[in-house]
Amino acid sequence: MIPLSVLDLAPVTEGASVGDALRNSLALARHAEALGYRRFWLAEHHNMPGIASAATAVVIAHIAAGTQRIRVGSGGVMLPNHAPLVVAEQFGTLEALHPGRVDLGLGRAPGTDPRTMRALRRDLVAGPQHADTFPRDVLELQRYFRDGAGPAVRAVPGEGLRVPIWLLGSSLYSAELAGKLGLPFAFASHFAPDLLMQALSVYRRVFAPSEQLDAPYAMVATNIIAADSDAEAERLASSLMQAFIRLRRGQPGKLPPPVHDVAAVLSAAELAGMRRLLSRSFIGSRDTVATGLHALIAETGADEVIVGGQIFDHDARLRSYELVASIAD
């Protein structure tokens, strides 16, 4: 079985606080470490009441300090929101504190809305000009991590530290860039499944070996919600479905509790849309999930799978990751 990792959004559930969410994330990371997961990544989102990982580097520090072996990192930092020097300094600091355990996954999207982008003081707007800065920013960030990056501007901490850089994406753009730069690539099929196979094909076709990586390394992201029965997993998954639909309605909020009949709270069109969006995700008992996960690995030739899964009840979330880990035994 290939390695499995965890993608955590630090979900803030209805009736709970951000502090509760961050404490639960640490508990999940410790659980994942004990179960043998390879990485624990957190994602940057802004202006989202249901996600507590906006200050991604700070939350990574929290997780790294509370664990011992599992790799910790970003899935990802949205590079358009930050000066590359600041990212190099932040992740250089993390690497200095936790040597050999830090990953830096980079995304090209802002992870938020245009008004919040302006509030981030990056003076960027969505569109072609915004997109064109990404390759240049990735190269600048790589330079800061090299020894002797330059006498004028140096990343301290950061310079000379080997922090692995990943590119993340939900389209062909990042797949091609990751291949050309010789970087590992993670595809976001947990929310954008349609282009998965095409993106992996592009990445592998254009891959050029680099100082960081000799051969292509592809990670596939999926949502998995596992429980002791298919029916219970479907009930738990209704929280994720409701959260997605509320976001699409322009009503983002905290992660809602599950319902027994999700069709009673979503329209037929919304439910059909959710089924399409989750077409590369797996919901069910251990056996149901195992069948789907093995098929995904066989189809994609993935080198690693990173597992997301927003579940309202913390104990049920721990149980879900326990069931998934047992598939790899």
Number-wise, the strands total: 9
Return Rg in Å. 19 Å
Largest sheet: 8 strands, parallel, barrel
The unreliable regions are 124-129
Q: How many DSSP helices? A: 11
How would you explain this protein's 3D organization?
The chain has helices at residues 18-35, 56-65, 84-97, 114-119, 128-145, 172-181, 196-206, 230-248, 268-277, 286-300, 314-327, and strands at 4-8, 39-42, 71-78, 102-107, 165-169, 185-187, 218-226, 282-284, 304-308. It is of the alpha/beta class. An eight-stranded parallel barrel has the order 1-2-3-4-5-6-7-9, surrounded by eight helices. Helix 3 (84-97) crosses helix 5. The chain starts with a strand and ends with a helix.
